[in-house]
Amino acid sequence: MKKIFVLLLGLVFAFTCYAQNAPITKSNYELPARFTPDKMQRLVFSTNVSPHFLKNENEFWYEYKTSEGNTWYIVDALKGTKRVLFDNAKMAAQISELMQDPYDAQHLPIKNIRFNDDGHSFIFEVVSSQDMTKDEQADYEEYRQKEETDEDKVQKDSPMKKTVFFNYDIQTGKIAKLPDYKEPYDDPSWASPSPDGELVIFARDCNLFYMDKANFEKAKKNAKDSTIVEHQITTDGIEGFSWSGTSYSDTNVDKKKNEHNRKGVYVSWSEDSKHFLIGRTDDRKVGDLWVINNTAKPRPTLQTYKYHMPGEENAPQEYLYLFDSATKKCKMVDIAAYKDQTISVLTKDRKLVDRELLNSKPTEWLGDNSKFYLSRVSRDMKRIDLCVVDITSDSLKAKPLIEERMNTSMESRKIELIAGGKEIIAWSQRSGWGQLY
Fold first, then answer.
1. What residues pair up with 32 in beta bridges, in sequence order?
2. Residue 195 has what pLDDT?
3. Cα distance between residue 280 and residue 269, in whole Å
4. Of all residues in the chain, what percent carry a pLDDT higher than 90?
5. DSSP for 272-331?
6. How far apart are CA 313 and CA 286, in angstroms?
7. What is d(CA 70, CA 50) in angstroms, rounded to the nearest whole number?
8. Distance from CA of residue 356 to its chain's centroid?
9. pLDDT greater than 90 at residue 232
10. 353 DSSP assignment
11. What is d(CA 127, CA 79) in angstroms, rounded to the nearest whole number?
């Protein structure tokens, strides 16, 4: 036993001497950098199909990348046919001639294909190697209503590259440069338009506002147009109990700079646009969390937001309100069941064809014009309720339809309505498959 102990002691001593005298090696940061998602994507290429449906909803196009480069296809779902959208070599030759930049069939610079209403032609973009002039860049930034960031201020001496628009005729295989073309106005991120487009909801200074269709068209062209008329809906919004919710991405500098700007609100509409739902969270008693954004330019900045840490007593409290679109008056929905619960208003699925819309597609609640559905989850996630709310009822009480109970935490998934809403397909945590209710 003594010999074994002496042997082990000698091995430990030898290893210690080696460790002390071993050369210090440099960290190999380059090796893991080779496997970042961006670099891996260049090696893996396309692994799925992302369809872009045309207006007839029977045809769609998609882009697919292999080691041979990008190929664009168009599919007729009714006929069951697929063909290439254009000849890459001929397209590269035409773009090179018109742009005076050399391109090949394997590395086409095509971006943002948008089909025209005729379904036989489309517009696309190509970024040139040439720089914009100062006047061109000023016009572009004004048109796109671009807000200057700290990074822009640092790099403002670096000119932007020109973007050239082309129209491609599928039948003739010819492209034409569109020198006077401008991108259509898209809905600003702060806007929540109604399904009929007559009302737009947004937030400012912690409260709700609205504007009509005519003024919204002005705002899309120039958000700072002094002739825009907007109306205030609520007056009780304050920091920590705001109608606009909490932003977890803005730094303290951004918050101060944008505190009086319009902000987005998550709105769920009825199909007839006569009512809308808005959730509101009270986190005034919730403690602050501080984060340093060390990638900000020119200097790191502080980011502060409310965050409920495990074990803390004061958690965010959620509320839900139903608004009448005509009167702008609201009623609180009775959702109370569990302490520190969370709720989610269930919404309708969006069609794939809607992704081609330039304007925002309004979010409609799941249900009909007289009722909507929501899920209610306890803080420990051991109790989940699927509820329905009848908006014609004075009580506006959430009525449980399906109740899930387990001794361990659960997850919930969206339900599907069938048979005109008379039946529900729901995913059951207890059984692990869909059930018909």
1. none
2. 94
3. 16
4. 52
5. TSSEEEEEEEE-TTSPEEEEEETT-SSS-EEEEEE---TT-S---EEEEEEEETTT--EE
6. 9
7. 14
8. 15
9. yes
10. G
11. 35
| Single pTM value for the model | 0.78
pLDDT digits (tens, 9 = 90+) for 45-101: 888 899 999 888 889 999 999 888 999 999 999 999 999 999 999 999 999 999 988
Local structure of 429: helix, strand or coil: coil
pLDDT for 4 equals: 47
Containing H/E element for 121?
strand 121-131
Which residue carries 């919710």 as its tokens?
A: 245
Q: Residue 239 has which token pair?
A: 């920091």
- Could you tell me the two tokens for 233? 């809906």
Phi first, then psi: give them for residue 202, nearest 5 degrees: -155, 180
Q: Are the beta carbons of 365 and 279 closer than 8 angstroms?
A: no
Instruction: Indicate whether 157 pLDDT > 60.
Output: no
Beta bridge partners of 397: 334
- Name residue 357's amino acid: L
Enter the tokens of residue 303.
Answer: 């980011």
Element (H, E) at 39: helix 37-44
Sign of CA dihedral 50, 56, 58, 63: negative
Q: End-to-end CA distance of the chain: give it in Å, rounded.
A: 73
Query: Tokens 């391109």, residue?
Result: 103
Q: Are strands 371-377 and 383-390 parallel, antiparallel or unpaired?
A: antiparallel
Q: What is the pLDDT of residues 303-317, one digit of tens each?
A: 888 999 988 999 999
Place of tokens 């480069």: 69
Render 392-420 in DSSP notation, one character per residue.
Answer: TSSS-BPEEEEEEE-SS-------EEEGG
Token representation of residue 313? 């007593």
